[in-house]
Amino acid sequence: MKIKTIGVLTSGGDAPGMNAAIRAVTRAGISNGFKIKGIFRGYDGLINNEIKDFTTENVSGIINRGGTILRTARSSEFETPEGRKKAYENMRSNNIDALVVIGGNGSLTGAKIFAEEYDVCCIGLPGTIDNDLYGTDSTIGYDTTLNTIVECVDRIRDTAVSHERIFFVEVMGRDAGFLAQNSAIASGAEAAIIPEDSTDVDQLARFMERGIRKSKRSCIVIVSESPKCGALYYADRVHKEFPDYNVRVSILGHLQRGGSPSAHDRILASRTGVGAIEAIMQGQRNLMVGVRNNEIVYVPFLDAIRSDKPFDKKLITVLDELSI
Amino acid sequence: MKIKTIGVLTSGGDAPGMNAAIRAVTRAGISNGFKIKGIFRGYDGLINNEIKDFTTENVSGIINRGGTILRTARSSEFETPEGRKKAYENMRSNNIDALVVIGGNGSLTGAKIFAEEYDVCCIGLPGTIDNDLYGTDSTIGYDTTLNTIVECVDRIRDTAVSHERIFFVEVMGRDAGFLAQNSAIASGAEAAIIPEDSTDVDQLARFMERGIRKSKRSCIVIVSESPKCGALYYADRVHKEFPDYNVRVSILGHLQRGGSPSAHDRILASRTGVGAIEAIMQGQRNLMVGVRNNEIVYVPFLDAIRSDKPFDKKLITVLDELSI
Amino acid sequence: MKIKTIGVLTSGGDAPGMNAAIRAVTRAGISNGFKIKGIFRGYDGLINNEIKDFTTENVSGIINRGGTILRTARSSEFETPEGRKKAYENMRSNNIDALVVIGGNGSLTGAKIFAEEYDVCCIGLPGTIDNDLYGTDSTIGYDTTLNTIVECVDRIRDTAVSHERIFFVEVMGRDAGFLAQNSAIASGAEAAIIPEDSTDVDQLARFMERGIRKSKRSCIVIVSESPKCGALYYADRVHKEFPDYNVRVSILGHLQRGGSPSAHDRILASRTGVGAIEAIMQGQRNLMVGVRNNEIVYVPFLDAIRSDKPFDKKLITVLDELSI
Amino acid sequence: MKIKTIGVLTSGGDAPGMNAAIRAVTRAGISNGFKIKGIFRGYDGLINNEIKDFTTENVSGIINRGGTILRTARSSEFETPEGRKKAYENMRSNNIDALVVIGGNGSLTGAKIFAEEYDVCCIGLPGTIDNDLYGTDSTIGYDTTLNTIVECVDRIRDTAVSHERIFFVEVMGRDAGFLAQNSAIASGAEAAIIPEDSTDVDQLARFMERGIRKSKRSCIVIVSESPKCGALYYADRVHKEFPDYNVRVSILGHLQRGGSPSAHDRILASRTGVGAIEAIMQGQRNLMVGVRNNEIVYVPFLDAIRSDKPFDKKLITVLDELSI
């Protein structure tokens, strides 16, 4: 089957650069003779037929904007066979021959299942702030969020130093410590507490032995969000053990998702968006487009969503040596 | 008594622009023949004799930095007669003839009591993000914090729109709604909940009647922090009444205090710092230096710390009319 | 005549906050029962009938964006009686009863002439980065541009210090030194060269006597743009007199106009936009809406466009004392 | 010879992240038992004996600051055998056993010659905004400068769109188009004119055929700085051929070098700084530390300074397809 029309959607948590990716898919598609349709609200929009023809105008002036003009959602209906059936029927009735899905782990898992079930062409772009997709050096949104966190911690440092306080700053990344570890290095924080390390070591104890007592001056610890052991938990522990310490907590929360994307994320989104159209033209399907070592790579869905994206343990040494 | 040496300190919550103020007092003082001494950690440093000679070099390269190189603290000891006695003795033993205090309401109240008790020359600069000092159009730090909040809400708006959620965003200003009301106007928020209005009106109910139901699309409500009725309280109420609404909370917290000061705050700090030295040269004392209508003004401490800085109720109309 | 429909346009050089002003006029107008029409490309759009009905949707999501969605232009045709006649006829044929003009000195002068010639209701909003309109504490765009300049000079300072160079940085403000003088104070520059001072004093000579020779370290001089005596002229003079100095020039240029408006400018635009609608409802006409001393004021066009907006000479002292 | 003391210097054009690199070398060095000496003003400081003992305190609070606390310079004396002899003698008299040089192509070439001539251990860190060093995915400063340019072009876009103008924006990168090509992609510019392409193609002509005539709307062309063919040259050509086009030029200049480094550059500087100390501990020498594919790599000087860092021609296609 010759592909003539491509649908594009964003799914899961929004990430800065998703708009740049939508723009790239749309314009590279049109540049190469395809028709483009925008699908609103993720897989739900495919199920509910919220689909609109896209021209180059629809994506004009959005490369520098956070969020996603296509809106996004986590679809529970698409997890059911009935939901995917409706989605497929709407694809057919809208003459959509291929789907470009911009999203994270869960969204690409959905694309994989859908592609296998109905034998359709699905291409994924790595759109998530968590950087937890395998096979690409970074994901669209990760660099911007890292910069946002570092900018916030720079601000918190001003007040931490002025008042000589200990701050526990909680950042996103429930299952992946990339944001926490790297923002700790970049902001000159004294420690990071991350999921990769937490099963077998008491990271707070190790840090406190290493020197929280050395001085009463300011100190910043970055903590990956966690259902049980977030920043509040650790602040409480320190407070109990050292009642005279001046401990504060800051939970950065949703502001980490927004904002104008960084140059890096705009370029990554532009290159992978063009790469998605090239993949379709080459007859490829059911894979994620990434960038490794400055080159476009195609990663089969199965590999991309592997849960074991390697975390470089040397980054822990880097932080330890630099926070003396 | 001819004043030869001036001590400068920062006190209370840190505010962006305090460093610009320290620089201005130091350099304008030296430009006019005074000796300057930096006092560390607020009034506590005066009590504990943490005092250091300052040259123009000490304040070089700090105009653009958040926080305060003099550190700051809230001193409970200075609230006691014994504490103030020690402070006075250290002033004398360090040959400090006049004191410039950069701080908010509580810090200037302390300066007023001290000045009266020991008949010393105290000049205040309005250094607080809360904008709650009377007699000056704005306070050092307020404009920067307003910009920081608006930048954060711009980011939250990206994710609120993408996911079509209702956000309650909590900002600083326990006793003054300047930050909440003005950041709501500036960020295009749908409503603000502020202390000035909260005693007699149920602001959330009024807002919800006005239209939260009109659409299911995104919506942002800015809430002044409050011991009882913060963003969590209001989010909970909405969630109970409309269980299908997608409600989220973001508490901006300490990052509101930090960051490089805005142009406005650096200029305000520079002008009032020069104004403080001029006041001393004119033999004035025990007043706060402010800017009204683009002119330097001297405001007696008693007036500056009045608790009734007027809140312009028309700003509520502005927000109401623009959030349709 | 009862006013039912209001046209809004932006004219002259674009300024950050113009979109916030368009939004405020549109929404406050609709909130109060008016019909709003957007006029594109300034007075040219009125002459060429580029006019479109505006709803609240048209101004959604623009409060934080630089530039103007209505586009802008300097119209030479509107300076002719024929041009204004066409403009008036289009106003009538579009049933536009009143005009809100967002622009600077030239644009409000045009509004004044037009209002007098055809006896129509014109309200001006002070939209210009130059801050050269009389009767308002600041103009929409001025605060943002000041922050942009200061941010740029902070960056230039990094490289000036690292290489120990003398920089001449040229900023906008051909006829008004507000931007140059205040950005010099805010960025901790060593000197400013401004039009207000330039007729009778050789500002560079005065500065160089004051101390450019004192040290070989870095130094930044802010220069108001000028057809004859811009940054290049002064750099050349210094270079000739001190050939071993390491002199560089940076002309900030058009990037000073763009960017997301500051909180201050968004609030000013929102308040004056609401104020414009209130003025129309009160039957007022042919005046500019400004803010003085935190209060809305109405300034007759004749006063607003006076060329003598006072420049506070004390700011020169502030800079001199702080750049030691 | 066992290495006990390490000297660190910055050389050539300053780049954001150099301070983070100085901090990393200093702290990782001290963490591993070395003594660290800071050398001021690049190789000139080694020749003139401007050397100071560094503790962890010396590099406290600098990770987020642009420029270099060690100052920098291009040394013509170090290019002479006499200069290098003095440098070597000062190394010996200060007991400096190894040198870490943070700089670009010219600085690492100097290090290579010096290392060979005197058989000393020299380690290079890639500190340059130009990204023109071979063997590392990016150089310290490149990402920050890219973001700065993109932010500036975003601003210029606001005014370009509002006035419907054609802008030629000149950016740094005399010999390498990385900054121009990638900032064009990231800012959504319509074209880039780069040195890699300029010998055999008239890039402006190609661009103008492609569509500058299609519409009279706004348009942005990014131009790599060039002695002959900068932005002014191209603007002039367009102006001559299409006299009714509204053409403007913006030369970004030195502000591209400054500013707080991005998260990416701080992490790159931190990791390579730690890597430099590790290299010394492993007995390695005369190589540059880089990061490829997220891993630390050691690149012999000869390879790093090769002039043929590959430019990915596919980026030209990306820009072409997305600027329709």
UniProtKB/TrEMBL annotation, chains A, B, C, D:
Keywords: Allosteric enzyme, ATP-binding, Cytoplasm, Glycolysis, Kinase, Magnesium, Metal-binding, Nucleotide-binding, Transferase
GO molecular function annotations of the record: 6-phosphofructokinase activity; AMP binding; ATP binding; fructose-6-phosphate binding; identical protein binding; metal ion binding; monosaccharide binding
Matching SUPFAM superfamilies: Phosphofructokinase
Residues bound to ADP: 23-27, 157, 188-190, 214, 216-218
Record-linked Pfam families: PFK
Residue positions of the active site: 130 (proton acceptor)
Primary localisation category: cytoplasm
Entry's localization field: Cytoplasm
InterPro entries: ATP_PFK, ATP_PFK_prok-type, PFKA_ATP_prok, Phosphofructokinase_CS, Phosphofructokinase_dom, PKF_sf
Co-factor requirement: Mg(2+)
Pathway: Carbohydrate degradation; glycolysis; D-glyceraldehyde 3-phosphate and glycerone phosphate from D-glucose: step 3/4
Amino acids binding substrate: 128-130, 165, 172-174, 225, 248, 254-257
Enzyme Commission number: 2.7.1.11
Domain Phosphofructokinase: 6-280
Assembly mode: Homotetramer.
Protein name: ATP-dependent 6-phosphofructokinase
Organism: Prevotella pectinovora
